[in-house]
Structure formats: structure tokens, C-alpha cells
Design a protein that fits this description.
By secondary structure, the protein is α/β, with parallel strands linked by helices. It is built from 13 helices and 10 strands. The chain folds into 2 domains: 210 residues, Rossmann fold; 92 residues, Rossmann fold, CATH 3.40.50. The strands form 2 sheets. The protein has a 6-stranded mixed beta sheet with strand order 1-2-10-7-8-9, sandwiched between helices. Strands 5-4-3-6 form a 4-stranded parallel beta sheet, with helices on both faces.
Length: 316
């Protein structure tokens, strides 16, 4: 797991920029909702990206930064690059949500679209960084990135005073960095919540790795949870971390994800994206169980037209 001292150091590094996001308690459903959609850049990804970029040596940043992103990680790296005077190239799939691409560019990133899915964008970014002697910032396969995401866990420990009574925490899982970080923060607790990673049925790579040890043969279809899509890098440190720290990886249907986006808007008046809604959908599926649950609402950067399609007039 990620050492506690790394998590504490990450908290100190990111605090001048990243905010402590609020918690809402919904006693009727037994939910504690952690609103990372209210984070700077609208996503938890800022935490890991900022911690990684700030922790680099000056010479590493001066080489120029390269990353890959469905949009949220790229925004985090771009903001961190702006603050440290670095240049950054972001490779993204040409299927990436246009609002996220525009946001990355508005933060100063050189966004280059790759004709294909996220996995190809990630490979292209890694190859480009190696060929041009630039510094690659992984969205998940990096201890400092994971430590940054783990600051959410530290905040939850401070914010929920009766954490020992919480039975489970629902966390979106794609590459596994968010789950690995939060679960590492909880690892030292005497009574830690049960850790449930939630993933769209459209892209069950981490689910396959968790239960069978391989992602070979996994097929992928388009998903509204774009931030959770794509194969996990071979040999990623998140694979053993998730296998060690998670209790379950739960598949969720696209229909459940859309229902969770509607539910969140109608119930809490919060706009969330598909990746965040996956975790909420998992908690809603288990709503009939009476135990308390934490739901990590990982981001709110949904394409406006998509949100209107799901939550517009007449949608219940």
C-alpha cells in the first residue's frame, strides 16, 4: 500500500490549490457523499496530478510533461503545469468529451487527439514521451499520483467522526488509482469500511484483473463513464494494490449509471459525470441494506448536451 507519510506529504503539497471538498449526509439512505465534483477543475484528478508535478525535480519539469487523459487528469496536469511554469502535451482519444478537451486547452495544454480509444491514446503518450525525452505523468500508475488521490481518504477520516460505524465505501474504478489511494489511507484504521470498486459493464478490465488475474479477452463498448474506460497498463502498481485493498469490484450497467445521474440531480441538485455516477449507482443498488455507506462522487465534468438528455424536462 502507499505509505502514510506519502499521503501526508501529498496533503501538504496540494493544499495551496486543491480544496477540502464537502460531505453531505443523507440519513434516510445511510449515505455520506463526498463531492469531488466541487473540486478545482471539477474532479478528484487534480489531487494526484498536482502532487506528482509538484514533487518532480525542476529538471524533470523543464523537459516538458506528457500525459494521456479522458479529460479530468489532463486538466489537473495542465493546471499543475501552469503553476510550475511547465509545458504539457495531453494525448486524448478522438472520442473524448469535447467539453473536457476544451477545458484542457483553456488551461494551456497542447491537446493531441488520437484516432482510437483511450488505450491507444495512453500508448501514444508513453511512446511520445520516451522518444522525445519528456516526463510522462501517468493517470494512475504512479505512487505520487495515487498518494494525491489518497488525500480524499485523509479528509474522510477527519470529516466523518463516526467512521468506525460506516460499513462500506463505493469508489469508481478504472485504472485503480483512486481506490488504491483512499484504501491506503484507511488501511491503518482498526475498523475500516468495506472497499467496493464500481466499474461500468462496458469496460470491465479491473474487474477481470481482480477476479481472474488477467484482462485478456475483455471487450469494451462505449460508456458514459468515460473516465473509467480503457485497459489497465500491464504491470501497473495499481493491480496488486487493488487486489490487496479492495473487497469487491462491482459491475454496473449503463442504464444504472444514467439513473444515478438523474437521481443525483433530482435529489441533491448536483451535476455529476458518468464515472462518478457509477459509484452512486453501486450504493443505490445496495440501498436496501441498512448500513452506512460512503459514496465518492469523483467528478462533475459531463457534456452539457448529455446531461440535458438524461436530466432534461420530463426525465424522472
Amino acid at each position: 500500500m502507499i505509505p502514510q507519510e506519502w499521503l501526508q506529504a501529498a496533503m501538504a503539497r496540494i493544499r495551496p490549490t486543491a480544496i477540502v471538498t464537502p460531505i453531505t449526509e443523507d440519513p434516510q439512505r445511510g449515505f455520506f457523499l463526498k463531492w469531488e465534483n466541487r473540486q478545482v477543475t471539477g474532479s478528484f484528478k487534480l489531487r494526484g496530478a498536482l502532487n506528482k508535478v509538484v514533487s518532480l525535480e525542476d529538471w524533470e519539469r523543464k523537459r516538458g510533461l506528457v500525459t494521456c487523459s479522458a479529460g479530468n487528469h489532463g486538466q489537473g496536469v495542465a493546471l499543475a503545469a501552469r503553476q510550475t511554469g511547465s509545458e504539457v502535451i495531453v494525448f486524448a482519444s478522438d472520442h473524448a468529451i469535447s467539453a473536457k478537451v476544451e477545458a484542457m486547452r483553456n488551461l494551456g495544454a497542447d491537446v493531441r487527439l488520437v484516432n482510437g480509444g483511450y488505450a491507444l491514446a495512453e500508448k501514444t503518450a508513453r511512446d511520445y514521451a520516451a522518444q522525445h525525452s519528456m516526463t510522462f505523468i501517468s493517470p494512475y500508475n504512479d505512487g505520487q499520483v495515487i498518494a494525491g488521490q489518497g488525500t480524499i481518504g485523509l479528509e474522510l477520516i477527519d470529516q466523518i467522526h463516526n467512521l468506525a460505524t460506516v460499513e462500506s465505501i463505493y469508489i469508481p474504478v478504472g485504472g485503480g488509482g483512486l481506490l488504491s489511494g483512499i484504501a491506503s489511507a484507511f488501511a491503518g484504521l482498526e475498523n475500516r469500511p468495506r472497499v467496493v470498486g464500481v466499474q461500468s459493464e462496458a469496460s470491465l478490465y479491473m474487474h477481470a484483473l481482480f477476479y481472474s488475474g488477467t484482462q485478456d479477452g475483455v471487450s469494451e463498448t462505449p460508456s458514459i463513464a468515460d473516465g473509467l474506460a480503457g485497459a489497465v497498463e500491464e504491470g501497473s502498481i495499481t493491480i496488486p494494490l487493488v487486489q490487496e485493498l479492495a473487497d469487491e469490484i462491482m459491475p454496473i450497467s449503463e442504464e444504472e449509471i444514467e439513473r444515478a445521474i438523474r437521481f443525483c440531480w433530482n435529489t441533491y441538485h448536483e451535476i455529476i459525470e458518468g464515472s462518478a455516477a457509477a459509484a452512486l449507482a453501486g450504493a443505490l443498488r445496495a440501498e436496501h441494506r441498512t448500513e452506512s455507506k460512503i459514496v465518492v462522487i469523483s467528478g462533475g465534468n459531463i457534456q452539457p448536451e448529455e446531461f440535458n438528455r438524461i436530466c432534461g424536462p420530463g426525465k424522472e
